[in-house]
Specification:
331 residues; 4-stranded mixed beta sheet; 24 strands; elongated; YbbR-like domain-containing protein; transmembrane; YbbR; transmembrane helix
């Protein structure tokens, strides 16, 4: 309103500022016919045939109290209507298209937990609100359905999806969710297929401190997830190079023979998170010398193999791969 008043004031000032000889009867007649021609042009334009898209709200009604909607019906459809400009203008102003009710009982198939709503039924309900001359030329989306059940559910764990890479010299030591598990509601067929739910694809890089974030869970058609958002905790740890001394164990030794190596222990080096190193024990490693290789090898050195190491360490390797040895008879 303020802008309109401002424009009118500018026009008034302009007209008043004109010389009186210009503001004549002929000038006012010109303005009248100019406005009249604009009105005729508008009327002719509105009398033409056009197409315009309108949103129409949908309402699923009559849902039983014990029913859980696991895959909701679309709440809005979009119809393209062809008609004269006058009618299309009416739909945009006073004759707006009212929401369409979709009765649950008319379409719900209780044995499958699925309801399919024919597009033709929705079009018919919309046509009841339109002028007889109006025609629907396009309808979106092309499919309308919903899923439901009567309380069937199970609890499943949450999994992370996407790319999460800490900064240089760090690694992701732990991922936690709050809550760790969520409840999923679906029909029996879908429940049997859902063993976990994942987050929306994450892309988090170059961080060195513990990071907390609320994330959405990836939707599954026909499945209701409660809650559908969880908090994720990302725990980076700084990488460090460590080592332990591990005894050498002989395998495939014949009865009565003993293998002695020099030295009897070798160092195993690896990369690990600083906090995780406290949980590492020598017993989690295994370094072996295979007697069968000694019997077929003419060299004087014994080859060593790293057969076992704990989960979570990176780039484990022996500092030496060969040692001197001596085979003794066991008395």
């Amino acid at each position: 309103m303020h802008n309109a008043s401002h424009i009118l004031q500018l026009v008034r000032d302009f007209l008043l500022g004109l010389p009186k000889r210009i503001i004549s009867k002929e000038f006012l007649i010109f303005l009248f016919f100019l406005a009249l021609s604009a009105i005729f042009w508008l009327l002719m334009s509105l009398n033409g045939t056009y197409e315009k898209e309108y949103p129409v709200a949908l309402r699923l009604t009559g849902v039983p109290r014990n029913a859980v909607i696991t895959g909701p019906l679309e709440d809005t459809v979009y119809v393209t209507i062809r008609d004269k400009g006058f009618q299309l203008l009416a739909y945009s102003t006073s004759k707006s298209i009212q929401p369409v009710s979709v009765p649950f009982s008319a379409y719900a198939q209780k044995d499958t937990g699925h309801g399919n709503v024919p597009i033709g039924d929705i079009k018919a309900s919309i046509y009841l609100q339109l002028f007889k001359s109006s025609k629907i030329t396009q309808f979106k989306p092309g499919k309308l359905d919903f899923y439901f059940n009567f309380g069937l559910s199970k609890v499943v764990p949450v999994r992370m999806a996407g790319t999460v890479v800490p900064g240089e010299s760090y690694y992701l030591s732990k991922v936690e969710f709050w809550p760790e598990k969520v409840t999923v509601y679906a029909n029996r067929h879908l429940l049997d297929k859902v063993h976990s739910v994942s987050t929306e694809n994450l892309y988090i890089t170059n961080f060195s401190d513990t990071l907390y974030r609320m994330v959405s869970l990836k939707s599954i058609r026909g499945v209701k997830i409660v809650p559908n958002r969880v908090q994720i905790g990302l725990f980076p740890d700084i990488l460090t190079e460590e080592s332990v001394e591990v005894p050498i164990t002989a395998i495939n030794m014949p009865a009565g023979k003993v293998l002695r190596t020099f030295p009897s222990k070798v160092k195993v080096s690896f990369i690990i998170g600083a906090s995780m190193f406290r949980t590492i024990h020598v017993s989690q490693f295994s370094v072996v010398a295979n007697y069968k290789e000694l019997a077929s090898d003419s060299t004087k050195n014994c080859k060593l193999h790293l057969k076992m190491f704990p989960h979570g360490i990176m780039k484990p390797h022996l500092d030496v791969n060969q040692v001197d040895y001596l085979i003794e008879e066991n008395e």
